[in-house]
Amino acid sequence: MEKIITCFITGSHTEDIRKNYTEFSGYPEVKTVYLTGKSSPLPHLQPTGGGSLCQTETLIRLSDICDTPYLLLSNKPTTIRLKPTALKRFVQIARATSAAFVYADYYEDKNGQICPHPLIGYQQGSLRDDFNFGSLWFIDTRQFKEAVALMQIHYHAAALYDLRLKLSLQGNIVHIPEYLYTEKEQDIRRTGEKQFDYVNPRNREVQTEMEQACTRYLKDTRAWLPPMRKDTDLSTGNFPVEASVIIPVRNRERTIADAVHSALQQTTDFDFNVLAVDNHSTDGTTRILEDIARKNPRLVHLIPDRTDLGIGGCWNLALHDSRCGRFCIQLDSDDLYIDTSVIRRIVTAFYREKAAAVIGSYRMVDFRLQEIHICLVICIHC
Question: Cα–Cα distance between 263 and 355 in angstroms, integer?
Fold first, then answer.
């Protein structure tokens, strides 16, 4: 069989590296397996030299090394087990579609439990830097080399993101809705501990590079728009109150009372109210909101007629309610304002900047109010 694939694996543990080398090198379609990095713990496994796949210099090295029609990037330091027909399937789809980049669904091995991990189809023009393509990227070498040749900025953290954006300019990115491999899950943190990694101050330099790569892509595709300043007229319209705190909620009996009281305790020199949109809770949330509303008329307890509204639909319901104020301020049903001056400071910022939206930071805490890390809060002018 013709050897048409060069594999590039990554890893930090010798045993994982050995397993992956054995796994990939055993397929007749594979010509050579390389380890990305400066050195290799295995005498028969050649390193590429350089740093990680997140660095542009490493991708340039891979471009120089690869001499087969296709390359397979294993971009996560974990153990991979291929389905016996996986590489044939990657090749079939790549040839049939002339795709620049092909990816597939996979299974996760979570402490011995095998869980399916389906992926979503790539949409042309997608910009999310955390789009999940899985840990195996099957790439057409010619289009890979062309994409790498376009890399004018050398990144230390955003190279793979930059590669994906540039590959999307070379050809199609195709999803195979089949489970073609199993990977051992390394990050066993709960979802709530992972989802705000992007705003962790330690990741600030990474995010800055991602933004640079995205901006470069937008300019390359003539989709970038220069920043424009336009003052917002905040004097138009008649509103019953100056500001409304909007809290969409469903089944948050443990936190909703604290969230509502946090809003009601704000001190201002203007009128405001709190619109809690109770999306048909089935626990004690509805009763808690009813009790607070009876005691404090500034709480407006809304229950939608429809049962198919998500958070966005609940937000829209509050925005269009006749009791909604000039400024709408977000508060999640499990959040607290940091002090009693938050609403006043937000409204002051609206008038000072003549802005349509105000974005500020807040602290992420656990149920003991111990800080986790920084997040965002968004407020808009109606």
Answer: 22
Angle between helices 159-170 and 141-149 (to 10 degrees): 110
Domain that holds residue 302: 243-381
Chain segment 122-162, per-residue pLDDT in tens: 988 889 988 999 999 999 999 999 999 999 999 999 999 99
Does residue 115 sit in helix, strand or coil?
A: strand
Please, what is the end-to-end C-alpha distance for the chain in angstroms?
Answer: 65
Distance CA 313, CA 301 (A): 16
- Left if phi > 0, otherwise alpha if psi is -120 to 50, otherwise beta: which for 295? alpha
The arithmetic mean of pLDDT across residues 329-349, rounded, is: 94
Question: What pLDDT was estimated at residue 380?
Answer: 54
For residue 166, count other CB atoms closer than 10 A to its CB: 23
Q: End of a domain among 169, 189, 220?
A: 220
Q: What is the CA radius of gyration of the chain?
A: 26
SS3 for 265? coil
**Predicted structure pTM score:** 0.71
